[in-house]
Amino acid sequence: MRSLETGTLLKAAPAREDWPQFRMGVFLAEIEARTGRSFADYEHAWRWSVDHLEEFWVAVWEHFEIITHTPYETVLKEQTMPGADWFPGATINYTEHIVRAVAARRDDVMVTSRSQTNGSTEWTGAQLLEEIGRIQQGLIRHGITAGDRVAGYLPNIPQTLAAYLATAALGAIWCSVPPEMGPKSVLDRISQLEPSLILAIDGYRWGNKDLSRADDLARIREQLPQTPVVLLPYLDQECEIPAGATAYADFTRDPGEIRCEPVPFSHPLTVLFSSGTTGKPKAIVHSHGGLLLEHSKALGLHSDLGPKDTAFWFTTTGWMVWTLGVSSLLTGAAIVLMDGDPNWPSPGGEWSQWAVAADTEATYLGTSSAYLAACAHAAMKPGASWDLSRLREIQCSGSPLSADVSGWVYDAVSPDLLLAPTSGGTDICAAFLGASPLTGVSAGEMSCRPLGVAVESWDPEGRPLHGAAGELVATKPMPSMPVFFWGDEDQERYRDSYFGAYEGIWRHGDWLIETERGTWVISGRSDATLNRGGVRLGTAEFYAVLDGLAQVNDSMVLHFEDPDGGMGRLVLLIEPQDGADRVELETLLRRALRTELSPRHLPDNVVFVPSVPRNPSGKRLEIPLKRVIQGAVLGDVLDPGVLVKPGDLEETVRIITEAIAA
Q1: Burial (0-12, 13-18, 19+ Cβ within 10 Å), 496
Q2: Burial of 346 by CB count in 10 Å (0-12 exposed, 13-18 middle, 19+ buried)?
Q3: Residue 120 burial (C-beta neighbours within 10 Å; 0-12, 13-18, 19+)
């Protein structure tokens, strides 16, 4: 992997005359024709979209032909945050739009599943619609109506997709938790919602390990004794159905036409849960209209998805990317679902994300930055190992993508694709920053602010910053901002989460830099910033250097403050590659940090650990780990159930504690 300067141009923006090749270009041409405007470049179009927010979202509504059963009275009743009221009066249904798109491709394969538990499955559009109808009949027999909550303890398989859409069609509210979560993690989430029904599996296979969920499901049922359960045999097709539960085959026995209940724009569609790494998970409620409109724009314009595409999003059902990936169907694209360990039997094996993308002829891959970094460090050459000729775009998120890894994608995967590093969150189920087909790609940077998203970098006094790290803020509302947190009756937790720093302005909690090129860099979480003797150091600065080092599998930076105001203790955690000489590696690390950053970035301790705590989205969990080391109770501030490698956590904590005590 070659070393690249941040900001190195990897792919130039298309010429202005080439815009009509892209759906975004067609959309902007429609606006130009209607308004008499002319957009010189993407930034010009973006500026119009946020300065004329209501006009922009009406254009999105009309372009994607939103089905409304009663018309909206106005676009945005109030622009206040929180409390923006979008499209009041309109009644719509999210599922209805997916049904429309899928019905147009009834005979085409629309869902391809690759599962280490039950193999490969392909559903045509007609099969997906039939399954949605059957599940809906089961929901109706169980008395599910608009506003009821349905929880899925399910993996990323076609039945989960169909259950979500069937639930939403009725106006009921969906939530899902992945089966790798233990019972405490599951209950911390779904018990907040008092679900009317749980759909679950008996177990699953991860690599070559069979993992039963029978005991975990029994514990969940003990705590929610009044909640009916439907069991889908997955690991063992002949498994015994627990007493009092309903077999999935019986639940789906009756076919039926899909009924889509019109609901208000702001009616709850799904509940996404925060990671739970800093306390009880927030139950973030997203609306039918918010996700329908935002995802139509994001996927139909920014991702340029359409009926000729196959989108493969590698995700668990507990990550917001799963919800976003389902919305690929809105554009007429087919989707690929994968359930299993992408590193089994080896990172370059038949279950790698690259192998699945090649096998399914995916044109679009949604993955994590951490996965790309791991492949780069392993010196993989996916473009040579698999036929990825149809792959035209890779979107990555979860953590910043370093310049070196960005370059590796173009060197080792394809020089022709669009690389789209993106930053957003569960909070908005969308992006604050990302890419577009009309902008270029620069190493280690995000190319643009999405249309209609008024993002800036602010100093503590609320002044915009350029060239320096400031708070990532959204100065105007987005349709996909949460309608509320479940159980947060007075919205106190909602306000504290986003609006405590600047009145009426969304503060997301990331340090953001606008570069001189008009590109964007996340330099770390503002609540994880290191303060070394009064100088702020962003964690992403460290990771940009460390992620490019060949002998480093993963890394994390922790800073323990000095109560007397001194420099404090800076601790660097390193997961080394097998066989690495740790003495030589520490010397290399210190030299790289001093040379590439500054002497102030040199750690007091370099600690080698079995793994770095990350959640399934690839997010490093610096703050929760730091609090555990400082004496907080493990289960209170860091739930092992949300970690990729929970078995390593206690050993990691022990090693760090001993190192800083020495």
Answers
A1: exposed
A2: exposed
A3: exposed
**Dihedral, CA of residue 613, residue 558, residue 406 and residue 393, to nearest 10:** 40
Number of H helices, E strands in the chain: 21, 32
Amino acid at residue number 313: W
- Residue 542 belongs to what H/E stretch? helix 539-546
User: Cis omega (within 30 of 0) on the bond before 14?
Assistant: no
Mean pLDDT within 162-179: 97
- The answer to whether 312 and 395 have CB atoms below 8 angstroms apart is no
Encoded tokens for 63: 């372009």
Q: Does an H or E element contain 396, and which?
A: strand 393-397
**Helix/strand/coil percent split, the chain, to 5:** 35, 25, 40
- Dihedral of the alpha carbons of 323, 125, 110, 190, in degrees to the nearest 10: 20
d(CA 376, CA 370): 10
Beta-sheet pairing, 569-576 with 552-560:
antiparallel
Mean pLDDT, to the nearest integer, of 389-409? 94
pLDDT at 535: 60
SS3 label, residue 58: helix
Look at strands 430-433 and 535-537 and give their pairing.
Answer: unpaired
Q: pLDDT band at residue 146, thresholds of 50, 70 and 90?
A: very high
Mean pLDDT to the nearest integer, 556-576: 82
